[in-house]
Amino acid sequence: MLYDKIMALYPSLTIQDFLTVIHLQNDSDGKGDYIAKWEHPTLARPTQEQLDAVQ
Amino acid sequence: MAGVPFVFGNATTSIPLTNLDANFNTGLTIGNTTVGLGNTVTTLGNVTLNNVTIVSGTIPAPTSIANGTSNVSISSSGGNVNVTTAGTTATFPQATGIVMVSGNMPAFSAYQNASTTVNNSTNTKIALQLEEFDTANAFDSTTNYRFTPQVAGYYQVNGCVNFATSATGFRFINIFKNGSSIKAGQNIAGGAINFTQITVSAIVFLNGSTDYIELYANQNSGGSLATSGSADVYFQACLVRTS
Q1: Is B220 on the interface with A (CB under 8 A)?
Q2: The complex's ipTM?
Q3: What distance in Å separates the CA atoms of residue B55 and residue A31, rounded to the nearest whole number?
Q4: Nearest to A26 among B119, B143, B220 (CB)
Q5: Which of A33-42, B30-39, B210-219 is least confident?
Q6: How far is B9 from B15, CA to CA, in rounded Å?
Q7: Is the pTM of the predicted complex or chain greater than 0.90?
Q8: Of B51, B70, B135, B147, whose CA is between 20 and 30 Å from B200?
Q9: How far, in Å, CA of B139 to CA of B109, rounded?
């Protein structure tokens, strides 16, 4: 899942981060999870290539 | 009678002259009112007219309208409207706006047929495929699972999600308006053998054209969790006041 891929890229992220500065979302439309909001003060929003590279 | 002016050219019923005295001092009785022939303005009472056509002029607003057969009367006082039936009066205060009746007050209640899987830390729209009622056909239960009423106003919104058992993390549900969370409910994990049920309730303004609301859920158990129980996962709204 998207959460696991992001955590693999940024292990320092916390549960609180995902409640405040990072929002993942799934609209139940068959398109899967996506990043709806990324406002982390220091970590850059991961690119699709970075996410796809995570096993 | 020769020389006495009499013109009844507009009368549809002839009036026998024997009903009039030689000096025209006798009035005509219409309803309960005696009409003097010399009067220019006379108010009639207890008159029933049938098949009347008004070709010109203005009828002044009555202060009371009564229907004798059904014992209903409508009157006004100080800007208020009073409706009396069988001796009981209901007063409608002076106000502007649209009178709301059941026919123009949207309401819906939908619940899940198949569970929705909520991934860890991911706001996930709850799919609600079954409708208990949807009076204005304003809830989409097939594609977007959203409520888009066409009457502007303030809606009471209720949401409930039941998560499968897990002892870890928190559970959240959110009312989304136009794609963003506006109200939320939260609970801790129910435990390894207990479901976790969360409710959210709010009054939300919807503009009656483009505004829509949806139900989302989130959790951080560390893995995926499914919603559970058809009757325990629902979304409802009804209009409580127009804009």
Answers
A1: yes
A2: 0.94
A3: 69
A4: B119
A5: B30-39
A6: 11
A7: no
A8: B135
A9: 9
